[in-house]
Amino acid sequence: MVSVLTADLLARVRERAADHDAANSFFSDDLDELRAAGYLRPRGLGAASADQRLLAAHAPATALGLTMHLVWVGVARDLLAAGDASLQWVLDDAERGELFAFAISEAGNDRVMSDSLTRVDRVALDDGTEGWAFTGTKIFTTLSPAWTRLGVLGRHDPGPDPDSGHRGEGGEPRIVHGFLTREAGGETPGVTITPDWNTLGMRATQSHTTRLEAAVVRDEHVARILPVGPSGDPYTLAISANFHTLIASVYAGIADRALALAVESAHRRTSLKNDGAPQAHDPDIRWRLADAALSLDALAPQLAAVVHDRDHGVDRGARWHRDLAGLKHRAVETARHVVDQAMRVAGGGAYRATSELSRLQRDVLAGIYHPSDTEAVHATVAADLLGPLP
Q1: pLDDT tens digits for 172-218?
Q2: Which of 234, 273, 285, 292 has its CA 20 to 30 A from that of 71?
Q3: pTM of this structure
Q4: 380 and 258 co-located in one domain
């Protein structure tokens, strides 16, 4: 599949990135161009990963924001490939240019998708159908100004009557996963967005706080109803696989750009102590650049192997959780190392707020906050090696 990311489009995206960062504004122009070019349409994970890495090298926040959309499209694609057409409508909407986002994260909820602080109640609707009403506060809702479909989850605790559950859930609590719809006029009943995104980096994502007050997901837009706790459902694995892989691709793209800028700097800057020779002749500078490149080279086969196996339906079993979390962790830590080496090579000029490397340094830090965080990654790997804790 030929990428829609032409050189001209990427040049325009890169040119706007600094202004969006400085103004703390949403990448609306990028979104308009990318939507028109077909970037929101479904494609395989390999193609999406390569595109995201390239886009991130030009505008990290734009790439990170669109990762959320591509994750949901990837989930629907993976389920369909496994014979589950329950999210075919997601693929159809993506083909039409609808924009999907996540409202998952909650302050104080370190169980992420296996539990929720958001309350979900069963409700009857005016048209005689039924749905689920979500009430709670979500943070880091990327694409807040523009999403048209919002993936949410929340906890439903049935009443004492065991018959009060839904779809065979009995009296046990369940996590309800579904999608809210933003109407053409921009309003969604029960959804309030607080424009409070003012961060160190990745500013153009505009990931505002979202308050849900009995916001209704209709039954036809419910993706899964699962038990509280870890789940082996293909749906949750597909979310993890697409999220971790595409996030890793974004941070690999940041590292690509940082290394390229450092190489340019080494050729451009000169050294008085070396009689005006370029810094590229300095053994210490050469070592730093080689060290950064070696780190980035080592990430490539890990990313390629995961992408290949997901696209070809390879079953790694329980090992998938370790491999996916490890890929995201390695990509972020590698990118942080490469950007740090690039900053050292580029010298004091890179410390200016207007420097692209300075912006990359701020953007790359966001990686440590995406799931899975460092503690969770190490816990996952330890469990794979040693078994679960008693």
Answers
A1: 999 999 999 998 777 899 999 999 999 999 999 999 999 999 999 99
A2: 292
A3: 0.95
A4: yes
Distance of CA 89 to the CA centre of its chain: 21
pLDDT tens, position by position, 249-274 = 999 999 999 999 999 999 999 888 87
Written as six digits, the tokens of 122 are 């069963």
- The span from the CA of 108 to the CA of 97, in Å, is 34
Name the residue with tokens 């969770």. 376
Question: In this structure, are 125 and 145 located in the same domain?
Answer: yes
Contact between 203 and 24 under an 8 Å Cβ cutoff? The reply is yes
pLDDT, tens digit, 9 for 90 and up, residues 116-148: 999 999 999 989 999 999 999 999 999 999 999
